[in-house]
Amino acid sequence: ELKVEQNPLFLSMQEGKNYTIYCNYSTTSDRLYWYRQDPGKSLESLFVLLSNGAVKQEGRLMASLDTKARLSTLHITAAVHDLSATYFCAVEPLNTDKLIFGTGTRLQVFP
Amino acid sequence: DTGVSQDPRHKITKRGQNVTFRCDPISEHNRLYWYRQTLGQGPEFLTYFQNEAQLEKSRLLSDRFSAERPKGSFSTLEIQRTEQGDSAMYLCASSLVYSYEQYFGPGTRLTVT
Q: Which residue of A has its CA nearest to B31?
């Protein structure tokens, strides 16, 4: 069974601090996506990682992909309150066109 | 282009009733996906179309669920004889073939009482 696991499930962090969210998956894939979801809202695309070693950065967020370890990370630098949301990673298994989502990480940033 | 749209945004129905949702993809996107998201979980894949052809259906999609995309543009998802376990957010996404990104709509929140 395909599994995509995120760690931690819930993260409460102080503004200005750094932290990393981990995404492990159990299937062969070279495509991984990160999405953000605000309460009651749909999914907003953050990053698309398409190859081993891919690294992308946008503002205070940086995502990386290690296909050999089947691991992606989302690093948060100097967190601000506006980053409070739920973050999902999603894997596109080889030879499929569907996304398998992780369990989500609910991030709460407080002053 | 205003993105993927879904209608209705909210639907409350009684158990046993049938419901139908509509999704309008981004113009010229030939792939259209349906996902279901229950509270506190990540979205789960239900089915997808390339143009009017339904190419894959999840085992989650019981016989009570049917999806169509008759002209390769908008799609409908029908749930017959709804059950309380069908309560969820139903998300639609679209993409271009050979493109890597799926764009999600605002979702339809279904509540079965």
A: A97
Which position has the token pair 């979205």? B43
Contact criterion met (CB < 8 Å) for A97 and B48: yes
Q: Which residue of B has its CA nearest to A96?
A: B56
Chain A residues contacting B, CB < 8 Å?
4, 31, 33, 35, 41-45, 48, 50, 88, 90, 92, 96-104
| Amino acid present at B86 | D
Q: How far is CA A103 from CA A8, A22, A87, B80, in A?
A: 10, 11, 9, 28
Q: How many Å separate Cα B7 from the centre of its chain?
A: 10
pLDDT for res B113: 97
Query: Which residue in B100, B109, B111 has the most chain A C-beta atoms within 10 A of its own C-beta, making it the best mutation to test that interface?
Result: B100
Q: List pLDDT tens digits, range B32-60.
A: 999 999 998 999 999 999 999 999 999 88
